[in-house]
Amino acid sequence: MSKxxxxxxxxxxxxxxxxxxxxxxxxxxxxxxxxxxSSVSQDEKRIIQKERMPTANAPSRARQLVKTGDxxxxxxxPNLNVVAVLPMEMxxxxxxxxxxxxxxxxxxxxxxxxxxxxxxxxxxxNMVKRATGQSYPAVSDKIVKQSQLPLPPLDEQRRxxxxxxxxxALRRKRQRAIDRLNELGQSVFLEMFGDxxxxxxxxxxxxxxxxxxxxxxxxxxxxxYKSEGISLIRSMNVRNGTFSRRGLAxxxxxxxxxxxxxxxxxxDVLLNITGASVARVCIVPSDVLPARVNQHVSIIRLGxxxxxxxxxxFLLLPKTKRKLLTIxxxxxxxxxxxxxxxxxxxxxxxxxxxxxxxxxRRNIAAVVSRxxxxxxxxxxxxxxxxxxxxxxxxx
Length: 395
What we know:
Blueprint: E1 7-10, E2 15-16, H1 23-26, E3 31-35, E4 40-41, E5 46-47, E6 52-54, E7 62-65, E8 71-74, E9 83-85, E10 94-96, E11 99-104, H2 111-117, H3 121-130, H4 141-146, E12 148-151, H5 154-193, E13 202-204, E14 209-214, E15 230-233, E16 249-251, H6 253-257, E17 263-264, E18 269-272, E19 281-283, E20 291-293, E21 297-302, H7 308-316, H8 318-329, H9 339-344, E22 346-348, H10 352-391
Parallel strand pairs: 3-10, 15-20
Antiparallel strand pairs: 1-12, 2-11, 3-6, 4-5, 7-10, 8-9, 8-11, 13-22, 14-21, 15-16, 17-20, 18-19, 18-21
């Protein structure tokens, strides 16, 4: 173990200035690469959308020219920690002003070390604490650059970054295995039911649900969260086909009693209805109960005609996912899916026997998926412990 005494230094003293421009006025090309907040995966911490946009349609926020290795930190909703490193193939792209662009000075700061730091609980907690705005919390570039990071010697930064890269790669490898198992469930669904559903064979989801409704946040918000107690499920816990216990919050019995109208039951289907993770879906596992949900998640409790496994698979179909995202993006003031829109969603109707046959095949893969998910949770716990040790000079 190498111990070091690092100086806390404002990030702004370790990064270089970037160039801004207006592509609609200054570009010689017809199209340009544009990166906005939705281009970055909150879970994977990387840019997942690499489409080009007509220069004439450049939005007013498309102003920041970015280079390979730049660290992009979203300044809106800092609790979601939407961050990424610009890959080589995106060099010269234009980023939204919704990002603070951190370009490490190579003589002072290792880019990978910085990338891990902006994912740390210390950095995220500081940003959340300093964010302003109730419905749309945000921080400024100035706040990001004023925040301090531990700055050991460059060789030590590189060593720490390499260790964290290896640990991070291991947990992501397990998560990819889970994703492949979820894809297997989708393949079985398509094999049995297809994805071209005749309108006459579809009905509104509301006709087959006992309950559709979003949750609520306890009075006091995050200050009400406890280390143990009744589970409070948030959007970060709802993944595509799996339930994540990472960041699972808890509230007291007293707080839970005030949220008795949003009690979660086993086999409820959860659908994220706002935010960066909108349209993600999973089934509630029994071992997270008793539980409530917050306002960013909708509970769909089914009747006897639709099985939760069938609905989950249908909502995970690429075609359905695109439809839900389109619905969300049409929101009047923000990206959101309303209760009425969920009720009106058209779902294909198949016999309960055929749904049960699908559920049997799907649940075989789900058993393996749950085991891998447990491994991911253990690896994530170890990773964050390792991360803490790294930035406190104990690694």
